[in-house]
Design brief:
Length: about 350
């Protein structure tokens, strides 16, 4: 074998190895996964990447809301106008690029993982459905960050907020410690308890909704935004090759799968459940937290004069009813006027017909 042939084969192997590395990097990158979605919300299966800053726009479009800029992403197709999901649940998992879910609707690579919030979507929900008091829940247990609005103030007031409350919840009845296979996880480690406390919050949310099923059957759509960082703490403490991290990853994938199925069922198979997995955000996210008692109802947060809203969700229905009723009445008036104008009193009117017969008899 000549030297030139050996060099050619070596270059070919190097190029093939580089392609394999690139392929593996694409497969194991951050992801945006749709766990549950109704049939009328059409997510197309493919490898189209979605930017982290566009995730709120995707959530808004799935709920039927308009966005400021067009979303040039083929993963989500336009759905029917009069069918919208009753809830959207977004779970952000930090510290892992992907989770092995048993069943999903679609999964897409996540590029440019910058911090994002659903504040714009929450404001849209509250502005359009303020009179129906929708449920808006944004929660990050690790940062003790909480934002509740609407009926969430009354339903989730018993939900543990601080880490101390959540850890105390782990020792009460109905704790996930009695049902989860902890394996290498310890009840005495702070990082392990942080991860388990986030799992407990997911369990408590579905338990509270099962006790208040009327929330999932009302007219207004609900919004849930949860951020979990327990895996990130476990990876820092034990490393990503540790048995604790592997066990926690398997537990979280199973818990999120069941959480998505429970939320989907509670909302009558009309809920969208998404999971964003990201190793780390490119910039830290800071938000001002709010307590349950600090959240208050306001009629119109966008107007300092307490004016009525310019748009209501029932506007399209009322407009169509009034429009077609006016058209029908206008056509009826035209037809009646035309017939009266061309009517012959001697033959078409019974009054003149009887008068003519009486005159003849006289």
């Amino acid at each position: 074998m000549s030297v030139t042939t050996c060099r050619t084969m070596k270059a070919g192997f190097t190029f093939a190895f580089a392609l394999c590395c690139l392929a593996l990097a694409g497969v194991h990158g951050d992801s945006f996964t749709v766990l549950q979605a109704p049939e009328f919300v059409s997510f197309q299966k493919g490898e189209w990447p979605v930017s982290g800053e566009k995730v709120p726009d995707v959530v808004a479009l799935t709920m039927g809301f308009s966005i400021q800029e067009d979303l040039l992403w083929p993963g989500l197709q336009a759905g029917p106008l009069f069918q919208r999901p009753r809830a959207n649940v977004l779970v952000v998992v930090r510290g892992v690029d992907s989770l092995a879910f048993p069943q999903t609707v679609a999964s897409y690579p996540l590029e440019n993982p910058v911090p994002f919030t659903l504040d714009s979507v929450a404001e849209t929900v509250h502005s359009l459905f303020s009179e129906y008091t929708p449920v808006v829940l944004q929660l990050a247990p690790s940062e003790e960050r909480l934002y509740m609005l609407g009926k969430a103030n009354a339903v989730f007031e018993d939900l543990p907020v601080t880490l101390q409350q959540i850890r105390a919840r782990l020792s009460q009845d109905g704790s996930v410690l009695t049902s989860l296979p902890l394996n290498s996880l310890s009840r005495n480690s702070e990082a392990d308890l942080l991860f388990l406390s986030e799992v407990q919050v997911l369990h408590d949310i579905t338990a509270l909704l099962q006790r208040h099923r009327h929330l999932a059957k009302d007219f207004s759509p609900d919004l849930y935004s949860l951020e979990l960082s327990g895996l990130e703490e476990l990876s820092r403490l034990y490393g990503k090759d540790s048995p604790q991290y592997r066990d926690a990853t398997a537990i979280l994938a199973s818990v999120l799968q069941k959480f998505g199925e429970d939320m989907y069922r509670l909302y009558g198979n009309r809920a969208v459940v998404e999971v964003v997995t990201v190793k780390t955000f490119e910039a830290p996210l800071t938000r001002k937290s709010r307590s349950i008692l600090e959240s208050k109802q306001i009629s119109n947060p966008g107007s300092p004069y307490n004016l009525a809203y310019k748009y209501n969700f029932q506007y399209a229905v009322i407009f169509n009813i009034v429009l077609w009723l006016m058209i029908a009445l206008a056509l009826a008036v035209i037809v009646i006027a035309y017939n009266l104008w061309n009517m012959d009193p001697g033959y078409d009117s019974i009054i003149y017909r009887m008068t003519n017969q009486k005159i003849r008899m006289d």
